[in-house]
């Protein structure tokens, strides 16, 4: 719907430019800018088809982007235990649709209003606007992930709700304009990524559950 609305507004604006702007050179400049903006929004909100790799023990990336952090931490909100967090930073040009990292049942979901610090800063984890979602696999493993708004992000969309059955590698939401996706893994998980790696949502293997 967002893309359709942008194109509708773009067409209306283009007609207004053609009707009211008296200088042809200025009209062409404005029309070029409008076309660029509509194409960019279409590109930004693209949702490509992805093929999930591996079996039910596999945790795949929930976002396109670069691994900005792999660290052992204590998760205080829901899991309340030591975990391994893998952070994936999405820059302005990455695809921003998010995908379920595992299949299972949603056991927890909460939206947190907050600040809009740059998403790669450590303090953004809890200070920024974010969502927290936990999925329990059929084997009883709980994977919690956070969608964090960044300096430019102003809206987080999440399709999760407690009790919902979800399939890994399918879309779980979207973060609009620059953000981060944190995955909290069980302490015994075998992590397959390291800082600096580029990941593809729904396809890149982040970890194997033991």
Question: Your description of this structure?
Answer:
The chain has three helices and 14 strands. It is of the alpha+beta class and 210 residues long. The protein has an eight-stranded antiparallel β-sheet with strand order 9-5-6-7-11-3-2-13. The chain has a three-stranded antiparallel β-sheet with strand order 1-14-12, with no helix packed on it. Strands 4-10-8 form a three-stranded antiparallel β-sheet, with no helix packed on it. The longest helix has 21 residues, at 24-44.
Brief summary:
This protein is of the alpha+beta class and 210 residues long. 21% of the residues lie in helices and 37% in strands.
Secondary structure: elements and pairs:
Elements: H1 2-20, H2 24-44, E1 58-60, E2 65-75, E3 81-90, E4 97-99, E5 104-112, H3 124-127, E6 130-136, E7 142-149, E8 156-158, E9 165-166, E10 171-175, E11 179-186, E12 190-191, E13 198-199, E14 205-208
Antiparallel strand pairs: 1-14, 2-3, 2-13, 3-11, 4-10, 5-6, 5-9, 6-7, 7-11, 8-10, 12-14
CATH class of the largest domain: Mainly Beta
Strand content: 35-45%
Helix content: 10-25%
What is the number of helices? 3
Largest sheet, strands/sense/barrel: 8 strands, antiparallel
Q: Number of DSSP strands?
A: 14
The main sheet orders its strands as 9-5-6-7-11-3-2-13
Q: The CATH topology of the largest domain, please?
A: Glucose Permease (Domain IIA)
- What integer value in Å does the Rg equal? 19 Å
Q: Number of domains in the coordinates? A: 2
The rough form would be described as elongated
Label the CATH architecture of the largest domain.
Distorted Sandwich
**Cα distance, first to last residue?**
41 Å
> Which stretches of 5+ consecutive residues score pLDDT under 50?
none
> Helix and strand string, N-terminal first?
HHEEEEEHEEEEEEEEE
Instruction: Tell me the structural class.
Output: alpha+beta
Mean pLDDT: 86
């Amino acid at each position: 719907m967002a893309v359709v609305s942008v194109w509708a507004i773009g067409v209306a604006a283009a007609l207004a430019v053609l009707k009211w702007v008296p200088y042809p050179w200025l009209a062409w400049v404005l029309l070029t800018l409008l076309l660029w903006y509509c194409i960019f929004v279409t590109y930004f909100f693209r949702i490509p088809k992805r093929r999930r790799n591996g079996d039910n023990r596999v945790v795949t990336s929930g976002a396109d982007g670069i691994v900005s952090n792999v660290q052992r931490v204590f998760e205080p909100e829901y899991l309340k235990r030591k975990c391994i967090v893998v952070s994936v930073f999405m820059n302005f040009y990455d695809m921003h649709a998010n995908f379920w990292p595992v299949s299972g049942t949603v056991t927890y979901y909460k939206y947190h209003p907050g600040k809009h610090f740059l998403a790669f800063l450590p303090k953004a984890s809890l200070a920024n606007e974010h969502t927290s979602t936990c999925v329990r696999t059929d084997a009883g493993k709980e994977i919690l992930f956070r969608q964090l708004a960044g300096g430019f992000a102003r809206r987080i969309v999440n399709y999760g709700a407690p009790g919902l059955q979800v399939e890994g590698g399918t879309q779980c939401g979207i973060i609009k304009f620059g953000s981060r996706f944190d995955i909290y893994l069980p302490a015994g998980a075998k992590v397959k990524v390291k800082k600096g790696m580029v990941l593809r949502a729904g396809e890149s293997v982040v970890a194997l559950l033991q």
